[in-house]
Hints:
By secondary structure, the protein is an all-alpha fold.
Amino acid sequence: MTCSPSRRAGLTFAIRDIDTFRGEALFWSAILVSNTLGTSLGDFLSDSSGLGYGGGVVLITALLALLLALKYVPAVPNVLLFWLAFVLTRPFGATAGDLLTKPTAKGGLDLGTVGSSAVLLTVLFGLMGWAHLQERRNNPAHHTPATA
Length: 148
């Protein structure tokens, strides 16, 4: 039987359970590395890979969808999927932001700061509304009005 890295280190990956300096150092080191790797990957995909902003967004979206599918494969550890998705959200955000804001001559949509903020707020509120409706469908007893 093999022992996971978190067990060997004596640390947990549950954020609420990090209560030692060693645990904090591991957590923040992982955050720093993932942010750096993610930003570098986003810059590479947008500027150097030949994919451009749109192609970079499509590639990262496909990788995130693959990770979501792998969530249902028991042999793949959820901790690994979490950290891979965590790293991939950084280049996704940077590349999608560039796609929305950069001029069309550079392959962007030229929406500017206000336009891209409006698009992102619309997406955010749409997803929040969808999540709320899903929750109401799955837990109807919690959302029935109280009668006096």
